[in-house]
Q: What sequence folds into this?
């Protein structure tokens, strides 16, 4: 089991060019999206929304909005992760529904609402929302790698152009990350990372 997961982490890399002849099946795409959907999130607010496209026309537009990166048009499918903003306002129908889903006893529910209101005042909501989206992104990329599907997280995009393509206003919601999925065209480069000792400190 451990080896299988480790193999997936070693398989995953930021794939720069996909094989345009290969298609990610609907079943595999569903599996990957499920990994995103089931991800943990601060306050359980599921700050994400996933816009999925296989459209060649939209992929072309996304490529232009993403600094002309070839991943966007060579991939099989693109998952755009949208970070919610407006819905996260304390007391909103969205927040209430998420808290209700948890089925907490009334006193805990009330405390949670109050604590969320307090917490919300301390944070910058968009970066906080994007942080949660990145957790879903990581899970989707790992799930993809687990079944042999390649990915590349794309943070290099022009926000204004990308919002136009995805019809996101940047106020009620904004783009967190874009993930093209497909199958690598070229061999994977060696993995370069700091050593275990450099990043892990036991105290
Ligand atoms: C938030 C984020 C944004 C990124 N944006 C891009 C991007 O726009 N284009 C790209 O080719 N790689 C992008 N990457 C991939 C990183 O460059 C890559 O993960 C890193 O260099 C390590 O290489 P590896 O993933 O192949 O091991 C991004 C990664 C993250 C986490």
A:
């Amino acid at each position: 089991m451990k080896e299988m997961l480790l193999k997936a982490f070693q398989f995953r890399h930021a794939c720069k060019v996909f094989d345009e002849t290969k298609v990610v099946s609907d079943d595999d795409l569903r599996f990957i999206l499920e990994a995103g959907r089931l991800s943990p999130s601060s306050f359980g607010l599921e700050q994400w929304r996933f816009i999925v496209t296989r459209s060649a026309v939209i992929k072309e537009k996304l490529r232009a909005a993403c600094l002309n990166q070839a991943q966007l048009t060579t991939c099989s499918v693109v998952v755009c992760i949208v970070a919610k903003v407006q819905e996260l306002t304390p007391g909103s129908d969205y927040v209430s529904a998420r808290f209700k889903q948890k089925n907490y006893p009334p006193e805990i529910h009330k405390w949670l609402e109050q604590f969320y209101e307090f917490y919300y005042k301390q944070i910058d909501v968009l970066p906080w929302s994007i942080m949660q989206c990145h957790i879903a992104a990581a899970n989707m990329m790992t799930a993809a790698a687990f079944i042999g599907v390649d990915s590349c997280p794309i943070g290099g995009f022009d926000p204004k152009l990308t919002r136009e393509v995805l019809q996101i206003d940047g106020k009620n919601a904004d783009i967190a990350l874009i993930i093209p999925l497909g199958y690598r065209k070229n061999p994977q480069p060696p993995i370069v990372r700091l050593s275990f000792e450099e990043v892990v400190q036991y105290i």
